[in-house]
Specification:
Blueprint lengths: L8 H5 L8 E4 L12 H7 L4 E4 L11 H5 L3 E6 L6 H8 L4 E4 L2 H13 L3 E4 L13 E4 L2 E7 L3 E11 L5 E2 L8 H6 L1 E11 L19 E4 L19
Length: about 240
């Protein structure tokens, strides 16, 4: 078996990046972002990227830095959120946006990993979501046909990996990451910890190593909180 462990995020992406490519990037809000890999894509300077991700980071963090450098041509996502740069580039026509209902986005990615080129969903029927797409009726209800999503490279953030590439995710950082790991031609995973072979109980593996091509230890683990709400501690 080829060695899947790479010495640095830059090395893990070496030879994979090119102009006009499609990248899937895990994460939901600021949870489970591949924090160490995204800056290396910025440094590589590749442009005209299509990026598939739930959202596009936040000010100064995550995929936002690829918006700032105008390396992203098109976003396929489900949420613009409070990302003012995302909003302004879209409204000015600088950035192309394919906006998806969140469940549809997740299923399109899962379908890409499962080898299913299209599926039907009732979500979006009768709205702009269905424009230009086939609509059929099943058992008296209308459904719109959606197509799979696949990528040249998937960049993933996981909690732990073994040398074979078996992955465990931690809590909500799991989000889109496991599905995206299956839908990339090459899957690059940054992890907080690499463990010895045999450490994982097979029943506790979230993503099998067959889907993982390259592994690297994270160099950035900020795990920012998107919206922090606090209240005074109650007195005894």
């Amino acid at each position: 078996m080829a060695d899947k462990i790479y010495p640095s995020p830059a090395a893990a992406l070496d030879g994979l990046l090119f102009d006009g490519m499609t990248i899937m990037s895990g994460g939901f809000g600021l949870s489970g972002n591949p924090e160490s890999l995204i800056p290396e894509i910025k440094k590589a300077g590749v442009k005209d990227l299509t990026v598939i991700s739930n959202n596009c980071g936040a000010d100064g963090f995550g995929l936002w830095m690829l918006l700032e450098t105008r390396q992203i041509r098109k976003m396929i996502s489900s949420y613009v959120g409070e990302n003012k740069l995302f909003e302004s580039q879209y409204l000015s026509g600088e950035l192309e946006l394919e906006l998806n209902p969140q469940g549809t986005l997740a299923e399109r990615i899962r379908a890409g990993g499962a080898g299913i080129p299209a599926f039907y969903t009732p979500t979006g029927v009768g709205t702009v979501v269905a424009e230009g797409k086939p609509v059929e009726e099943f058992e008296g209800r209308k459904y719109v046909r959606e197509t799979w999503l696949r990528a040249d490279v998937s960049i993933i953030k996981a909690w732990r990996a073994d040398p074979e590439g078996n992955l465990m995710f931690r809590k909500t950082a799991r989000n889109f990451n496991p599905n995206m790991a299956t839908a990339g031609k090459v899957t690059v995973v940054e992890v907080e910890e690499i463990v010895e072979p045999g450490t994982f109980d097979p029943d506790c593996i979230h993503t099998p190593g067959i889907f993982v091509d390259r592994i690297v230890l994270s160099t950035i683990n900020e795990k920012r909180i998107e919206k922090l709400t606090t209240r005074p501690r109650e007195t005894a």
